[in-house]
């Protein structure tokens, strides 16, 4: 796979850290910088003390090596700094992990699967409104409460520019808030080793202006009616429908990502490949060559005309 195409598909992969774009990642970034720079400061002082111990003259050593240095450098300084960092870290954690609802916030459920993301947009009562996979559309300036679950093993949800990082643990629901302050595309990545293609479990958040978001939402809530076609028939006959759902058709499999709007997604294979026709066709015929170990079987036996028809059908599902 060509690195340039990969970079284009991902718009900024690897996800930049320490470059916050919202109120839930800014404080994390501040703390990270304080730890990093403070750590370097302490390292510099320790190296200086070591240098003095090795090369310093007797007068200098006597002046710096008394009991006072031990009390200040070895006791007072660590106690004060570590206590301050502990208080900072704990208050930040409790603020970021507060789960009391905020007026007007959006609710989404994201479930980690081996090795992709199931996404459900919820209404106020927690009912699923829109189903999608591998990407999340949000309006700017509005907090989004993400309910994190796992269908199999432990994954970890992380969009570094929009919020903190949170594990997705089977059997429980963790909550993480994110928010984007400017429209754009924000890359994410599974941050907990979850088996073979863990490194290829990417994610994309698309932040829209409020008006664009309303348009996007209207497009997704309108009932889908894909026209009859050869590709649609083959999709249902050749086994694809056993694992994938296409809204408005007989395909209602739940094992793999929902494909009702596959053509409008930014990427294929969970954030790792550009969503263009050649890649789509290669993915259908042999996804194992593109994302080794993923759970979709290869369909190398598909005759060329059938592969073309299914690719056309997928490409029409906007
Ligand atoms: Cu999912 Cu690592």
UniProtKB/TrEMBL annotation:
PROSITE patterns in alphabetical order: COX2, COX2_CUA, CYTC
Gene3D superfamilies: Cupredoxins - blue copper proteins (2.60.40.420)
TM region positions: 31-57, 69-90
Catalytic activity: 4 Fe(II)-[cytochrome c] + O2 + 8 H(+)(in) = 4 Fe(III)-[cytochrome c] + 2 H2O + 4 H(+)(out)
Alphabetic keyword roster: Copper, Electron transport, Heme, Iron, Membrane, Metal-binding, Respiratory chain, Transmembrane, Transmembrane helix, Transport
Domain Cytochrome c: 226-318
Chain ranges of the Cytochrome oxidase subunit II copper A binding domain: 103-219
Membrane topology, record value: Multi-pass membrane protein
Localization in the cell: Membrane
Similarity comment: family membership: Belongs to the cytochrome c oxidase subunit 2 family.
Chain's role: Subunits I and II form the functional core of the enzyme complex. Electrons originating in cytochrome c are transferred via heme a and Cu(A) to the binuclear center formed by heme a3 and Cu(B).
Xref: NCBIfam families: CoxB
Name the UniProt record assigns to this protein: Cytochrome aa3 subunit 2
Lineage: Bacteria, Pseudomonadati, Pseudomonadota, Alphaproteobacteria, Sphingomonadales
